[in-house]
Design goal:
The chain has a 5-stranded mixed β-sheet with strand order 3-2-1-4-5. The longest helix has 17 residues. The chain has 144 residues and is an alpha/beta fold.
Length: 144
């Protein structure tokens, strides 16, 4: 790549490739350090058998608080399928969630019930230290 113009004091142009080789070697070292030599897999945990089968089945049961419409009267309340008065909801939910690790509650309200009653149940759930509260809608129940 050199250009020779004769014997005299002419200019000679050539590409100096030494800096390019230095850059190439530095990049090669960087990529060798970045790319791991041994692939790491995912850490997994082996499922453990339950210690108390009967107790775990009752703890894994989903809690659904239902707010049922009763005409012009205040709504009725159910925790799963057991009826409770409004004043009994907080003590009962506190008792249910006192020994649970996963604190999830669902609220199902009739379409005719005023939303303030459902909001009251959500507040009671928060007071009972429930971490996650979900609302069940007719579309969710139908699977849509």
């Amino acid at each position: 790549m050199a250009m020779d113009l004769g014997q005299g004091g002419g200019s000679m142009s050539s590409i100096n490739v030494t800096p390019m080789i230095d850059i190439l070697l530095v990049l090669l070292i960087i990529f060798m350090v970045i790319v791991p030599t041994t692939p790491n897999g995912l850490n997994t945990l082996v499922p453990q058998p339950p210690k108390h089968k009967q107790q775990q089945q009752t703890n894994d049961r989903t809690i659904v608080v239902q707010v049922l419409y009763q005409g012009g009267a205040p709504p009725a309340y159910k925790i799963n399928d057991t009826s409770y008065a409004y004043s009994q909801l907080l003590p009962e939910l506190t008792k249910i969630y006192s020994n649970r690790a996963v604190r999830v509650m669902f609220v199902r309200g009739d379409p005719n019930v005023d939303f303030r009653y459902i909001a009251d149940v959500i507040d009671i759930g928060k007071a009972a230290d429930v971490d996650h509260i979900g609302l069940m809608t007719p579309k969710m129940e139908a699977g849509d």
